[in-house]
Write a structure and sequence with these properties.
It contains 13 helices and ten strands. By secondary structure, it is of the alpha/beta class. The strands form three sheets. The protein has a six-stranded mixed β-sheet with strand order 2-1-5-6-10-9. Helix 2 links the parallel strand 5 and strand 6. This is Transcriptional regulator GlxA family with amidase domain.
Length: 307
């Protein structure tokens, strides 16, 4: 079990908190064992939107697998808001020094700054307070116009809804892009990328559409990725003609169903190889008869169609 601990301050923005919390809660519905908890200086925190939240006041013991996330709050300026005790700042710092991950949404980056966790690191925050954050922490490198930044287990995101992007990224990093894409679809949101980094996941690149027929086709392909799925079989399973399957899939994803399956196979094989599998083992695990096709695809810039 991993803990996700939200450190709250007075005036917390509900979406800064609820967006990431929903992502990690949804992860539990897909079998990932997270336990969410909420801590603050007092046992009640008033949100900026007027909802009062009940919280714990005791800072929990943490392991390196746990995450501490600081949501943002209503802050015309950072310097006069977001009171956090020295004990809480030391707790954040100790967690990171022990190998744990800390994260923030919006103005929450200021708390990480006060804990000394932004010094020498890249970070971001809401565009309204980016300049102030840079002024308060001159040793930090504040990156404008990105959704989130990851630097040595310090993860900071921009304003409000970008906390969802941050949380989806963390789930994808820890548990793979398939789970992240499933959570995003459940939440009816796009799985977005950092403005700095290329979106590398096939699932995340090609699930940002609203065509339910194509989503059903993708579900079939993803659940049977190692099988030889013909266009005729996909058409039968979705109640469409082969021509309609091809047309809809290309319009939504920019590729054919077989090319999509090939890209998925390559991505999963790369994941297995990265975790110690041999080329032959990875190739057979994802449906290739041997490693020759996998070697050719790895060497190519764009995966080729191959049933």
């Amino acid at each position: 079990m991993s803990k996700v601990v939200f450190l709250l301050v007075h005036g917390v923005h509900l979406l800064d908190l609820a967006g990431p919390a929903q992502v990690f809660f949804s992860a539990t519905e897909f079998g990932i064992d997270y336990r969410l908890s909420y801590v603050a200086e007092h046992d009640q925190v008033d949100s900026a939107q007027g909802v009062s939240l009940r919280t714990d006041t005791e800072l929990p013991d943490l392991s390196t697998e746990d995450l501490v996330l600081v949501p943002g709050w209503s802050a015309p300026t950072l310097s006069s808001t977001g009171a956090v005790s020295t004990a809480a700042l030391a707790w954040l710092r100790a967690h990171h020094e022990a190998g744990g991950t800390v994260a923030s949404v919006c103005a929450g980056a200021d708390v990480l700054g006060r804990a000394g966790l932004l010094d020498g690191r890249r970070c971001t925050t809401h565009h309204d307070v980016q300049d102030e954050l840079a002024h308060r922490y001159p040793r930090a490198k504040v990156i404008p116009d990105v959704l989130y930044v990851v630097d040595d287990r310090v993860v900071t995101s921009a304003g409000i809804a970008s906390g969802i992007d941050l949380a989806l990224h963390m789930v994808a990093t820890r548990h793979g892009p398939t789970i992240a894409a499933q959570i995003a679809r459940t939440m009816v949101v796009y799985t977005r990328r950092n403005g700095d980094d290329r979106q590398t996941s096939v699932l995340l690149r090609h699930r940002s559409h609203v065509n339910e027929t194509v989503h059903r086709i993708q579900d079939i392909i993803e659940s049977r990725v190692a099988e030889r799925l013909s266009l005729a079989e996909l058409a039968r399973l979705t109640g469409c003609s082969q021509r309609t399957v091809t047309r809809l899939f290309d319009r939504a994803t920019g590729m054919t169903p077989l090319r999509y399956q090939q890209a998925l196979r390559l991505e999963r094989a790369e994941h297995l190889i990265g975790h110690g599998a041999t080329m032959d083992t990875a190739a057979r695990s994802v449906g290739f008869e041997d490693a020759r096709m996998l070697r050719r695809l790895r060497a190519a810039a764009v995966p080729a169609d191959h049933p």
